[in-house]
Each structure stands twice: as C-alpha cells, then as structure tokens.
Amino acid sequence: MLAPGNAVSAENLTKRYGTLAAPITAVDDISFTIPQGGTLGLLGGNGAGKTTTISMLLGVLLPSAGRIRVLGHDMATDRFAALARMNFSSPYIALPARLTVRENLRTYGHLYGVRRLEDRILELSDQLDLHAFLDRPAGQLSAGQKTRVALAKSLVNRPDVLLLDEPTASLDPDTGDLVRTWLEQYRAESGCTLLLASHNMAEVERLCDTVLMLKQGRIVDQGAPADLVARYGRDDLEQVFLDIARNTAA
Amino acid sequence: MNRRIWAMIYRHLCLYRHSWPRMLELVYWPTLQMCIWGFTTSYLTRSDQGSGQGSLAVAGGALIAGVLLWEVTLRSQMGVAITFLEELWSRNLGHIFVSPIRPWELLAAQIAVSVMRTLFGVLPAVGLAWLLYRFDLFSIGPIVILLFINLMLMGWWVALAVVSLILRHGLGAEVLAWSVTFGLAPLSAVFYPVSVLPAWLQPVSLALPSTHVFEGMRAAMLGEIRWDHLAAAAALNALWALAAAALFAWQFRRARTSGALLNLGE
After folding, report:
1. Sign of CA dihedral A133, A134, A135, A138
2. How far apart are CA B159 and CA B72, in angstroms?
3. Residue A53, class by beta-carbon neighbours within 10 Å (0-12 exposed, 13-18 middle, 19+ buried)?
4. Helix residue spans in A76-116 (DSSP H)
5. Is the ipTM of this complex over 0.95?
6. What whole-number distance in Å separates Cα of residue B17 and Cα of residue B12?
7. Are B258 and A15 in contact (CB under 8 A)?
8. Which of A167, A214, B34, B262 would staple A48 via disulfide (CB 3.0–4.6 Å)?
9. How far is CA A214 from CA A47, A80, A208, B1, in A?
10. B91 inside 8 A of chain A by CB
11. Are A99 and B8 an interchain contact pair (Cβ–Cβ within 8 Å)?
12. Burial class (CB in 10 A: 0-12, 13-18, 19+), B143
C-alpha cells in the first residue's frame, strides 16, 4: 500500500523500450516516495534512468509496469488533475524564443489557470529579478537569464510538486548559487515538494533530504546525503557517486 | 473561453505579432495563386469573346472560384499542421504536454488559429479577385458559406492525420504539412468535373468531401443547388474526421509510450 501523506509515490516502476526480442530496460522496477514538502534527488550517470523517471512522473511517458500517484491522483487515469498542481523545468526544453518573457509567462499562466496572473508575473519578476528583460524575446536572453525565466515559468502556478531536471546546468557558479538559494527559500516558504535530477553533487547535497542513486535503471542505494557519505566513508557525495558509478565501493 | 485553449491561441497571436514574414506568408500564396489563375482566366475570356461562344467565360469563373475555395482547404490544413510544427521548431512541446492541457484542447486551439490564418490569407485574395477581375465569390450565393465550411473541415482532418504522422515520424514528416493537400488537388475535381477523371479513379475522387464541394460549386454557378453533393461532403467529412481522430489518438498514445512527446523537437 502507498503511504498516506506522500506527495509522490512510485511503485514498481519499469520502463522498457525496444522490441520483445531485444528489450532495453531504462527503468527497472523502482519504488520510492516523496513526503509532502520533501526534496528527493535523483542521481546517476548518463543513461541511469533519471529523465525517464521524471518523464513518467509527469505523465508524458507511459510506464511499462508500475504505478504512480501524485498528490493523490493516479497518473494513469487522472493525470490532468495532478498536472495542474505540478510544474517542471529543464534546460533541454525551451520556451518559445520569439515571445517575450512576459508573453511566455502569460501563456503558461493561462495554461495552468493562474488567478490574478499579471500580479503573479510581477511577483515572480521581483523575486527572480526579471524586470530588466521582461519585455525582451526569450530567445535573446543569456543562459543565466533563460534559467531564471524557466524557473519563473515552473513556479507560475505555485506548484505543490516541482520537478527539476538539472536546474543549474550550464550556469556560472554565481548564477547557479542564486538559483539554489532561491529554490531553498521557495521550498521553505511554500512547503512545495521537490524532485531534482542533477549531476551537480554539491547542489544535491545542499538541497535534498533524500537521494536515490540510480544505475542502469535500478536503485543501487538511497538515503540522506550525509548518511550516504558516512556509509561509504567518503568526504562528499561526489566521491560516493564515483564509487557507485565505478563499482569501487568498499 | 476555456483558458487553456486561449493560452495556446494567445501564444500564436504573439508569435505572429512579432514575425512579419509569417504574416506575409499567410497572404502571399493565396494572392499569388489568385493572380496567376485570374490573369489566365482573363486571357481565356478575351479569346472566348473573339470566338463569340462565351462558354470559356463561365469556365473561367469556375476556375477562379476553384482557386479561392481550394485555398480554404489548403490554408486551413496548413494552419493546424504548421501551428503544431511551431511547437516542435521552438522545442516547446515538452512544456505543453506536462501542463494540464488536454490533447483535444490543444487541437481546438490549433483549429482556432487555423481559422484566423485562413481568413487572413484568403479574404485579401477574394477582395483582389473582385478588384482585378470583377469576380465576386459571393455571387455564387449563400451556399458558398456551406462550401467554405466543408472545405475547412476537410483541411482540419487532413491536418489531424498529418500531425499524427509527425507524432509518429517526428520532423522527418514535416514536409507532409505542405505537400499532402497539394497531392489531393488532382483528385478533388477543383478545376474540372469528376467525369473528366478516368472511370477507375472516379470512386477515389468521390470519396473525398472536396470533390462534392466543387461539383456543388459548379452546379451553383449554373444556378442549381445540389444538396446531395453538400450532404455527401458533410457525411464524408464526418467519416474522415473520425478516422483521423482515431489515428491521432493511436499515435498520441504511441508517442507517450515511446517518449516522443519530449524528444520530437530534437
């Protein structure tokens, strides 16, 4: 049974691609929960199954087996009710480049049914310092500005569950730190549940309560970042990650 | 209006507001077609007056009406298909499909944008036909509205089939957005009656709603309202729309199984 009070529950989640004769298992029978207000980090090398897992949680990819519930809604049968209270950000999915930042935020605000949308846009502009380029086309922004806009888009509906795929990829350390600080503040103020996939171990250590270590689609370890570091007898999560990735764990 | 549908209409209105080449493209082809066929008709009409027959003048009117009405099908099909492609080109589809918008709402928005694009593209050509050649499309009578609606409906289900193929094959199927309806023109009896086609091809032609629309158009220009053709066009549109919707539902589910919804733009 799925535990009550969990914002996200994945049970025996599996995703296979390819043919019956030559199946490729991207995610292999994983189960996890994220309590309301918790932050879970998905860690793993390329092809570990992080993006596949996020795609299934968002309902854009159908699992081959298993069950997902988000905010009490079964994603197989009732995903739109959950999606209205979720949001997502990824540097690999763009916002329309010709539209201004304001027009993009309006579009997504309408899509998510945000009330008092103009006020919300101004609020996000204050919080993420968007005012200087609010009326510039999204395609003309720097990487750092684009990331802030993508973050604003992902927060426009004040999501109860926020999924972030490498939220600080390709950002300079200063902008990356600003984004992480802002995410910490937002989580503290809103009680939002976060799921974060990242290759940045320091980021995961800083933001996440729990970490799932994925390898070839399976959960190979999990726990609080500090517990994992202690258990592997290492100095930080990056060393733990390398141990797992290279099979050199003691 | 449903806010999710409005969101997608608003997104495309903003896109066109910022892109004059896109606006120009909407008007360019229908106007160009109108001019080419209009001048051809003027030439034929002049030759016809010399012979004292007058039959070519009637055929010329049917030619211009055919050009204008065929543009309705073409523009409404491209309106839906290109509106979908815009999301692929901007790599925005992933954001849309993780939002609470239902697939039917996305299609409804695309159809609304298609109506705007079609009116914006075709109405200037209709006006030009009157200015340059004194051809008034509405002289066919109020039935022209029903012809117009049937051709738009056909454009939409063809577009739905095209979008389904893009979902299946990605941007590799992009060219279909421009070419599919052109390919249907020879079968649609746009510029000639269906009886001109070889006997074996006529059943194929009659399976298309557009054939009945253009047969009905020519009859109306000669003063006869052919309700049988209009009814056949409407029934065939309903049938093909159901088939296209089933194809779309199948391919959409397939795209969710394969993960294409997030990767199509790449």
Report:
1. positive
2. 13
3. buried
4. 79-83, 101-111
5. no
6. 8
7. no
8. A214
9. 9, 28, 15, 44
10. yes
11. no
12. middle
**Min Cα–Cα distance to chain B from A220, Å:** 24
pLDDT tens string for chain B (266 positions)?
A: 799 999 999 999 999 999 999 999 899 988 998 888 888 888 877 776 665 556 677 777 888 889 889 999 999 999 999 999 999 888 888 899 999 999 999 999 999 999 999 999 989 988 988 898 888 888 888 899 999 999 999 999 999 999 999 999 888 888 888 888 889 999 999 999 999 999 999 999 999 999 999 999 999 988 899 999 999 999 999 999 999 999 999 999 999 998 888 776 43
How many Cα atoms sit within 13 Å of A54 on the Cβ side?
29
A223 touches chain B (CB under 8 A): no
Residue A216: count other Cβ atoms within 10 Å of its Cβ: 14
Structure tokens of B104? 């039917």
Write down the residue that tokens 């691609």 correspond to: A17
Region of residue B141 (phi > 0: left; psi between -120 and 50: alpha; otherwise: beta): left
Residue type present at position B247: L
Task: Give one word for A9, left, alpha or beta, with left for phi > 0 and alpha for psi -120 to 50.
Answer: beta
Q: Determine phi and psi for A89, rounding to 5 degrees.
A: -140, 140
In angstroms, the separation between the Cα of residue A153 and the nearest Cα of chain B is: 10
Length of chain B: 266
| Integer Cα distance of A1 and A111 in angstroms | 33
Q: Report the alpha-carbon distance of residue B184 to residue B195 in Å, rounded.
A: 17
- pTM for this structure? 0.89
How far, in Å, CA of B206 to CA of A214, rounded? Answer: 58
A198 touches chain B (CB under 8 A): no
